[in-house]
């Protein structure tokens, strides 16, 4: 299945490339940009746990349940790959439907609000709907992660529901998980909205 094969996706601001062990130092630097692992409602690996997280994601890739990416900025001077700013994935892959969840995503603090997130989501959603042929794409986040919930809603995703006491966080507390999705027939409007946001940013209007 094509969506299980590592691939590189290139947008206006970011390049999503297959996660590899040699990305370790760049990912550690990105996580230190804002000390993201200290945010209790996220699951960003601490610097000393980054190698284990890379191995975990690559093991899930081998099992066919995750396709992990490293997110890089596009270098404005060369147009090629620039510094690493984070990670994202296709996860909970259902090859039979097919259906994927876009998640386990984080970006360096200095890259947030710069167009990198909508650009990344446009790349992943376009590939999921237009190449893989997914009838739906899912997003999940912590009930208390209001920033993430608002960002997902801005994409045009609709909330499906809340899974109460769904899983435990790294500190052992129970988490309520909010589930969102975008359906295939909704994709053209979502795509247009993302492209409009990127066009406005390119014109210097945020």
From TrEMBL:
Keywords: Acyltransferase, Transferase. Residues 14-158 form the N-acetyltransferase domain. It comes from the Bacteria. Its EC number is 2.3.-.-. InterPro entries: Acyl_CoA_acyltransferase (IPR016181), GNAT_dom (IPR000182). One of its GO terms (molecular function) is acyltransferase activity. It holds the Pfam family Acetyltransf_3. It is an enzyme of class 2 (transferase). PANTHER family: BLL6696 PROTEIN, N-ACETYLTRANSFERASE DOMAIN-CONTAINING PROTEIN. This is GNAT family N-acetyltransferase.
């Amino acid at each position: 299945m094509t969506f299980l094969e590592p691939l590189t996706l290139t947008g206006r601001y970011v390049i999503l490339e297959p996660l590899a062990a040699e990305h370790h130092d760049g990912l550690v630097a990105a996580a230190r940009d804002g000390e993201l692992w200290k945010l209790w409602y996220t699951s960003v690996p601490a610097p000393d746990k980054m190698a284990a997280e890379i191995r975990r994601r690559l093991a899930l890739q081998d099992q066919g349940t995750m396709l992990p990416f490293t997110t890089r900025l596009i270098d404005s001077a060369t147009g090629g790959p620039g510094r690493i700013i984070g990670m994202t994935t296709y996860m909970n892959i259902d090859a039979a439907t097919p259906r994927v969840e876009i998640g386990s995503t984080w970006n360096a603090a200095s890259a947030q609000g710069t167009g990198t997130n909508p650009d990344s989501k446009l790349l992943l959603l376009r590939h999921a709907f237009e190449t893989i042929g997914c009838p739906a794409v899912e997003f999940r986040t912590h009930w208390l992660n209001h920033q993430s919930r608002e960002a997902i809603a801005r994409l045009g995703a609709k909330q499906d529901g809340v899974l109460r006491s769904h899983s435990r966080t790294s500190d052992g507390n129970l988490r309520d998980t909010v589930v969102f999705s975008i359906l295939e027939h909704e994709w053209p409007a979502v795509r247009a909205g993302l492209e409009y946001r990127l066009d406005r940013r390119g014109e210097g209007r945020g």
